[in-house]
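Hello again,

I reread your note about wanting to compare the complex against the isolated chains. To keep things tidy I'm splitting this into two emails, and this first one only covers the full assembly. Below are the input lines as submitted, including protein chains and any nucleic acid or small-molecule components. They are followed by the predicted structure of everything together. The single-chain runs will come separately.
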Amino acid sequence: MLTAILLTIWAVLCVFDILGPNVFMGFRPLIAGTGAGLIVGDVNLGMAIGATLELTALGVYTYGGATIPDYQTGAIIGTALAAAGTGDLAAKTAVGLTIGLPAAILLASLDPIGRFLPTFWIHRADQYAEQGNSNGLTLMHWTAFIPWALVRAIPTFLAALALNTDTVKQLQSAIPQGFIDGMTLVGAILPAVGFAMLLKIMPVNKYWYMLLIGFVLYGYLKVPLLGIALFGLAFAFMFEALKPKAAAGRGGEVSING
Amino acid sequence: MASNPVPTSGPTTSPAAPALPRLERSDLRAAFWRYFWSFQISWNYERMQALGFAYAMEPVLRKLFPNKEDYEAALQRHLVFFNTNPVIGAPLIIGSAIAMEEAGAPASAEGVKIALMGPLAGVGDTIVWALYNSIIFTIGASMALNQNILGPIFVIVMVAIPYTVVRWWQFFWAYDQGKRLATSLGSGALERVTEGATILGLIVIGGFIPSIVHLVTLTDYKQDVTVAGASVTQTVAVQKQLDTILPFMLPILLTGFVYWLLKRYNLNPLWAIAIVFVLGILGGWLGWFAPALPAPPA
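Full-complex prediction:
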C-alpha cells in the first residue's frame, strides 16, 4: 500500500515537472522508470525498462499540445508490476515492456481529459481577473493542475494496488517464451520508430549527407556516442562559420510589428 | 486581437506628472519564479498557456498599475490565448512583455506575444525537444541499459542546469532589450542557431541509428559449392553476408522503412509503433531475428 502511494506521488511529481520547473524531465520514461525502480527497490529493473521505453520514444514529444503515448505512466506501471515477477533482469524487463508499452498507448486516451477539464478553471480565472482578485487567480492556476494529475495518478494507483506477487507470477507463467523473445526484439527495434519520427520533422532532403557522417563515424570508425555528439557540435560550428555571410544576412522570418 | 483596450496611464513626458511606478529587479525575479515553477500547470485546450502567462505577469502588473481598474484590465489583457515552447520562447516573451508594459505600451506587449509565440514555438520545439533532448536522452539511456546509474543522473544534470540557465538568461535579456528585441532577433541569428542545431542533430542521429536499433538475423541458407571438383553443401549465415555488403544494414533498412511510411503516407505514429510491434513479436517468436535488448557500447 505504501509502495502504491509512493508510486502515485511519483507519477504526479513527474507530470508536474514537465508542466512547471523542467528540472528532471520526469515525464520521460528513462527518469520515470528509474524513479519507480527506486521506489520498488530494483533500480536496475526500472532503468532497463525506462531506458528501453525511452529509446522507443526518442522523437516523440507533445508538439503544440498533441497527445502522445503516456510513456511516463507506462514506465512506472511496467516497472512496478515487473518487479513482482520472477526471473533474471532480462526476463523481468521483457515482462515490464509487455505491460508498459501497451499501457502507455492505452493511457494516451486519458490525456485529452486532463487537457480539457482545466478549461473550466480558466473561465473562473476570467471572473477573478475582472474583480482584480489575485488570490483567486493564483488558486485557479494551481488547482487547474488537478485534472492533469488525476488522469495519471488514478491508473498508477490502481495498477500498483494490483501489485500482488501471485497475480503477476500467474500472468508471467501464462506468457509463452516465444512471446517474451518477441517482446525483447520489439524493445530492440522500436527505436527505429523514434528515429524515423525525428527524421520526419527534420530537413532530411536538404542535409541527408549529415546522416552519412554520423553513420560512418559509428559503423566503420567505432566512435562512441558521446564522441559522435562532440564531433557533430564542432562540425556544426564550422559549417556556420564557413558559410558566406551574405546568405545569412537576409533576415529571419521573425518580424515584430508591436 | 480585433479590439485592444488601452486603459493605462500612457507614458507622460511632462516633468510635473507623478513618476510611473518603476520595476525593481525583485519584481522581475518574482515574475520569473512564478513562470519557472508553474508555467504550464493550468494548460488547457481552450487557451493553452494563457493562465500561466497571466499568473507570471501578475506581480509586475500589480506594481505597475496601482489603480484597481487599470490592474483588472491588465490581468484580463494577459488571459488571452497563448502557446509557445516553455523553455526557449516563453521566458523571452514574458521578459519582453514586461518591458513593454513598463514602458506604458500594452499594445506592443500584445504584439510581441502574437508575433513571437509561433516562430519561437517552432525553433524551441526543434532545438529543445527534438535535438537537445534526443541526444542527451539517447546517451543517458544507453548508459542505463548497461546498468549504469550515471545514465539517469547524467540526463538530469544535463537538463536541470542548462535549462535553468537558458531560461533565466533569456528572460532578463529580453527584458533589458525591450524595444530593441525585434532588431536583435531579426538579424538571422535565430536561423543560424536552428541550422547549426539541425546539422548536429542529423550527424548524431546518423550514428545513433546503427548503435541503438538492434536487428540481427539468425537465418541461414544452404548452398552447393564445388570444392576441388567435389560438390559440398555449405551453410551460410545471412547476417555475415549482409555485413560484408554494409554494416548495420538491417537497422538502417528498418528505420528507412518506418520513415518512408511516416513521410509518404503521413502515418499516425501509433500505427507505426503497432506495425513494428507486430513485426518484432513475429520475428522474435519464429526465431528469425536475435532477441536482444539494445546494449550499445556507450
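For quick reference: Residues 1-18 of chain B have pLDDT under 50 and may be disordered.

B.
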